[in-house]
Amino acid sequence: LAEALQARHGNEIMRVIFRGAALSHYLDQLPTTMLDEREVITLHRVGREHLGEQVFAHVARLAGQLTGDYILANRIPAPAQRLLIWMPPWLAGRVLAKAIGAHAWTFVGSGEFSARSRPGGMFLTIKNSPLARETHADIPLCNYYSATFERIFSRLVSPKTRVSEISCLATGGKACCFDVAFR
């Protein structure tokens, strides 16, 4: 998120938002362990308050794309990536969603991740999403997740993949649900 804030709004705005969330120490020394979800929740809340929901949505989307790039470069072994690319999209999507589910605790914290197939794609759901819980918004707030999922699925399942958040806890939905269309 720091990299995305800096790229979109410059160093000063990035520092203001991290200071507002009482997390500026991460700008001096990157974390080496998992973050407490409360820190992530606070950082996103402060970002939305400072920049507004619409503008921060673009920042969160860029952060998700960057996270997707990181995951592809560092977390999914090259042989697994080659295998997924070779599979038909319906199968690769299921295999990738299962792997994401096994590691979901790293990005949903105390939330709950699930996936289910549909013709031409799948639905990914995050119940009690850290990015949307205990807040109300006019727009869906999980652009970070949408962009991360889209980056990974478009590289490993189908280059035409598009992900959209079709339900958000913050806008009154029961959960945050993402439609993954392999097109």
Fold and architecture overview:
This protein is of the alpha+beta class. Helices cover 55% and strands 14% of the residues. The chain has 8 helices and 4 strands; from the N terminus they run αααααααββαββ. It has helices at residues 2-20, 25-28, 37-51, 53-74, 78-86, 89-102, 105-108, 143-156; strands spanning 112-118, 121-127, 162-167, 176-181. Strands 1-2-4-3 form a 4-stranded antiparallel sheet, with helices on one face. Helix 1 (2-20) packs across helix 4. It is globular and about 45 Å long. It starts with a helix and ends with a strand.
Name the descriptors.
183 residues; 4-stranded antiparallel sheet; alpha+beta; globular; 8 helices
Number of β-strand runs: 4
Instruction: Give the N-to-C terminal Cα separation.
Output: 29 Å
User: What percent strand?
Assistant: 5-15%
Structural class from helices and strands? alpha+beta
What sort of overall outline do the alpha carbons produce when their principal axes are compared? globular
Uncertain spans, ≥5 residues at pLDDT below 50? none
Q: Give me the side-by-side strand order of the main sheet.
A: 1-2-4-3
Largest sheet: 4 strands, antiparallel
Q: Mean pLDDT score, rounded?
A: 97
C-alpha-based Rg, rounded: 16 Å
